[in-house]
Amino acid sequence: MTTLLFSHDQCLDHVTPPGHPERVERLEAIGRALAKPEFDALDRRAAPMGEEKHVRLAHPLAHLDRIRTSEPVEGYAQIDADTSMAPGSFNAAMRAIGGNIAAVDAVLSGEARNAFVMTRPPGHHAEKAKPMGFCLFANVAIAALHAIEHHGLDRVAVLDFDVHHGNGTQDVLWNESGVRFASSHQMPLYPGTGAPNETGAYDQIRNAALDSGSGSQLMREAWGEHILPWIEAYQPQLILVSAGFDAHAADPLAGLNWRTEDYAWVTDRIVDVAEKVCEGRVVSSLEGGYDLDALAQGTAAHVKTLMERGA
Ligand SMILES: [Zn+2]
Questions:
Q1: Distance from the CA of 4 to the center of ligand 1, in angstroms?
Q2: Mean pLDDT of all residues in 109-131
Q3: CB 27 within 8 Å of CB 138
Q4: pLDDT recorded at residue 15
Q5: Residue 263 near residue 228, CB atoms below 8 Å
Q6: H or E element: which one contains 183?
Q7: Measured at the alpha carbon of residue 306, what is the angle toward residues 117 and 280, in degrees to the nearest 5?
């Protein structure tokens, strides 16, 4: 078995205004990194379209209709202070959902132990009824709810190491007793949520707030000594990852000073837990990361670790 890689060219149609950090070039940079021979063994699959029923797991119909009808015929439509749509953005967003759904289906059916979903727009800032922070739909929260509703799982873990708090994931999963959600993030920073006292309706949420400049050691303490033992104790049947690479020292939007090797480390520790409790089942999905080199290298380290551990 090998690692599955879900992507789709339509994710390149989600064009953002000039100078916007969440840009087409991000996927192109990752694509170049994953085209190297060491990634030949990846099982590459086209991300299918997500469906209305998938969106409705996390969002009211009015939210879906708003996104669908906001897509412009040409140019850009601004739908939030820093979120816009272009012709093709809706299909890109549906590929991101569909990629996550297909990855969960494939991993739960035993086709592979783990998968990486290389799509955009990202999802972890999209709340139930509010697109924001470059995100239209809560891709990973949708995948978690799909695992529960469609596959009948009782315990799913969602881990978010993007430098920004996954406020959208938290919003969607706040009243969900069957999912433990844990996030590490820089604080204070956009979007302003993610304080340690935000623990969900069932004490099923953990937020690790990290100081600007805190670096590798504090990150490894947060994950190794707090988040992952708490997840392991839950014995999840599937682990989903919101994989953002914007905590890297080179990222222009934040300042946590993580290094490329930290992404290999945290991935390794996540797989350690997955092997102990759920036969190694991990589905990881691209969120942020805005320095193209750091993004490509961080993603490559992450995917390479998934491949080495998923074989
Ligand atoms: Zn981010």
A1: 23
A2: 98
A3: no
A4: 98
A5: no
A6: strand 179-186
A7: 100
Backbone angles phi, psi at 82, to 5 degrees: -130, 20
Largest CA distance in the chain: 50
One-letter amino acid of 140: V
Task: Classify the C-alpha dihedral 184-189-190-192 as positive or negative.
Answer: positive
220 near 195, Cβ under 8 Å?
no
Which of 125, 165, 185, 302 is an active site residue? 125
**Residue from 68, 94, 91 nearest 79 by CA:** 68
Contacts of 45 (CB under 8 A, 6+ apart): 4, 5, 6, 102, 106
Would the pLDDT of 203 be above 80?
yes
Give 282 Cα–ligand 1 centroid separation in angstroms. Answer: 20
Average pLDDT, the chain: 98
Distance from residue 152's CA to the centre of ligand 1 (Å): 30
Residue 125 among the catalytic residues: yes
Give the pLDDT band of residue 218 (cuts 50, 70, 90): very high
Q: From ligand 1's centre to the CA of 186, what distance in Å?
A: 10
Distance, C-alpha 233 to centroid of its chain: 22
Question: Please, which residues have CB within 8 angstroms of residue 211's CB and are 6 or more apart in sequence?
Answer: 186, 187, 218
Whether the per-residue pLDDT at 262 is higher than 90: the answer is yes
| Cα gap 37→30, rounded to integer Å | 14
Place of tokens 């799909």: 146
CB under 8 Å, gap of 24 or more: what pairs does 135-138 form? 135/83, 135/168, 136/67, 136/79, 136/83, 136/85, 136/89, 136/93, 137/50, 137/55, 137/58, 137/59, 137/67, 137/93, 137/96, 137/97, 138/58, 138/59, 138/168, 138/169, 138/171, 138/172
Determine the distance separating the centroid of ligand 1 and the alpha carbon of 164, expressed in angstroms.
4
Residue 137 in tokens: 């739909």
Say if CB 305 and CB 114 are below 8 A apart: no
